[in-house]
Amino acid sequence: MGYAGPEIFTDTELVYAARRHEPWAERALWERYIGRVTRLASRLLKSSADVEDLVQDVFLAAFMGLDRLERPAAFGTWIYEVTQRLGWKSQRRRREPHLDIDEFEVTNDLYVTRPAPPDVTADLRRAFDTLNAIPRGVLQIFRLRYVDGLTIPEIAESVRLSSATVKRRLAQAERRLARLRGG
Question: Is CATH 1.10.1740.10 correct for 6-94?
Answer without folding.
Answer: yes
